[in-house]
Amino acid sequence: MINPLRSEAEAFRFLLGSIVYFGLIGLAAVIDSWLGLAVFVLATLALFAWWVRARRQEPPLQVASRQRSSEDERRILVIANETVGGQKLTDEIHRRAEGRREQVLVVCPALNSPLRHWASDDDPARAAAQQRLESSLRRLRELGVEASGEVGDGDPLQAIEDALRTFGADEIILSTHPPGRSNWLEKRVVERARERFAVPITHVVTDLAAEHDEGR
Predict the structure, then answer these.
(1) pTM of the model
(2) Residues 6+ apart with CB under 8 A from 16
(3) Residue 149 scores a pLDDT above 80
(4) Where would I find the beta strands (DSSP E) of 19-96?
(5) Which residue segment(s) compose the domain that 51 sits in?
(6) How many other CB atoms are found less than 10 A from the CB of residue 15?
(7) Which residues contact residue 96 at a Cβ distance below 8 angstroms, ignoring those fewer than 6 apart?
(8) Is 173 contained in some domain?
(9) Are the C-beta atoms of 164 and 121 separated by less than 8 Å?
């Protein structure tokens, strides 16, 4: 999950603002219940307006990898969920790693339904992601690509940021379903990732239905 408090100063401002927010509402409610409701509505609207304005003014966060590879090494970070075992994705990873001293890290975000997420029921989503990840790693090793993998945060952007903090990627391969069937494309994940991370990103579209038909 994305942490909106990226520094101690931001955490302090958030704490101070929360105290003032609830303090004003509580004080008004003691005087009169309707006054308390009015203050709650006005304070909430003011807080929302401030948040929207701050989001518009905030520049894109450029998160670069913390570690760098040596000159003869290529470190590739792969982000994929349901398409993680797709033929087109594995072929692209193999092509980019061939003939190089490569390190490949495959991260499979554990996508979950909103209801299960709010209920903190992430186990089924993580188990399904782990199964897809292991199948993909076996396929890559059969192709001669030494790859490791892990299940990441359900938010693909947060999964990328978490991985970059420990894996110094030279490039990122982000795999999605085709347009019209991809939630990530609907949410502009590829564009937002390119705005946010100072690492080259390759977008691979994997059509699992077409691959299944070709395999018959």
Answers:
(1) 0.67
(2) none
(3) yes
(4) 73-79
(5) 8-57
(6) 11
(7) 74, 76, 102, 171, 173
(8) yes
(9) no
- Express each pLDDT in 173-189 by its tens digit: 999 999 988 889 998 99
CA pair distance 105, 172, nearest whole angstrom: 10
DSSP 111: -
Is residue 141 in a domain? yes
Pairing relationship of beta strands 171-176 and 73-79 according to DSSP bridges: parallel
Tell me which of 4-8, 106-110, 144-148, 153-157 is least confident. Answer: 4-8
Q: Are residues 120 and 203 in the same domain?
A: yes
CATH of the domain at 128: 3.40.50.620
State residue 201's pLDDT score. Answer: 94
Residue type, 158: Q
Q: Is 21 within a domain? A: yes
Measured distance CA(48)–CA(58) in Å, rounded: 15
Regarding whether 19 and 106 lie in a shared domain, the answer is no
- For residues 108 and 50, membership in a common domain is answered with no
**Residues 47 and 86 placed together within one structural domain of the fold:** no
